[in-house]
Design a protein that fits this description.
This protein is of the alpha/beta class. The protein has a single domain, classed as Rossmann fold, CATH 3.40.50.300. Helices cover 49% and strands 11% of the residues. It has a 5-stranded parallel sheet, sandwiched between helices. It is globular and about 50 Å long. The two termini are 25 Å apart. InterPro entries: P-loop_NTPase (IPR027417).
């Protein structure tokens, strides 16, 4: 699998308004009902679509999170991105430092941050494993379930450029699937710009994410 960011849909035609509206409503309902989805769309279009769909879900009481994998190339970068994104649900954007993984974890001990997350994050444990990227990754992924479960809500996670993830580590997809499949309070939108890679990830029976999400066709 190469050329992750190759975009065979670069010249994709805009969807007719009626078809686009139906697609937005379908996405909203599937994600709200706990059904994960996957489809192919250029990055800029994915960003615009996500804003529309996620705002509707927020209005219905869901937590929402966007995770852009465009510039992620290591497990450490993925872990930091996941932690920042999910903890923002509790803390807010302004309180979280945009720094290294170690600095970010150290910042969790600040009183104003600790007070908001101590019921969902074992901060001493996280700090004790900060040199172990995979253990930290497991903890950050588990938070995707823990936070909405505690609030009796649903979290909808929208991944941009999801096909990039297969290049980070050979076993990463299997590790993520093992977590995601048991997360009853989380729905996922796996969106990527490379149709061949996305089809392989979700339609090839040898892949970890085979049939994990409903494959949709953007009406462009």
């Amino acid at each position: 699998m190469d050329d992750d960011m190759t975009n065979p849909h670069e010249g994709i035609a805009p969807a007719p308004p009626a078809q686009y509206d139906r697609f937005v409503r379908e996405l909203e309902e599937r994600l709200y009902d706990g059904c994960s989805v996957t489809f192919t769309l250029p990055h800029h279009s994915s960003t615009l679509l996500a804003r529309g769909v996620l705002s509707r879900l927020e209005a219905r009481g869901c937590y929402t999170a966007e995770i852009d994998l465009s510039n992620v190339s290591t497990i450490e970068e993925l872990t930091l991105l996941l932690l920042q994104t999910v903890l923002q649900l509790r803390i807010g954007i302004s309180a979280l430092p945009n720094s290294s993984l170690n600095d970010f974890i150290d910042s969790l001990s600040r009183p104003e941050i600790r007070a908001k997350i101590k019921d969902v994050v074992d901060i001493p444990y996280v700090q004790s494993v900060k040199e172990s990227p995979l253990e930290l990754l497991d903890e950050s992924v588990s938070l995707l379930q823990r936070i909405p479960e505690q609030s009796k809500a649903r979290l909808v996670v929208w991944f941009h450029e999801f096909q990039v993830i297969h290049k980070i580590d050979d076993l990463l997809l299997k590790r993520l699937r093992a977590h995601f499949q048991f997360q009853s309070h989380v729905s996922f939108a796996f969106v990527g710009s490379n149709s061949d890679l996305m089809r392989t990830l979700f339609a090839d029976q040898d892949q970890a994410f085979y049939r994990f999400a409903v494959m949709l066709q953007y009406p462009g």
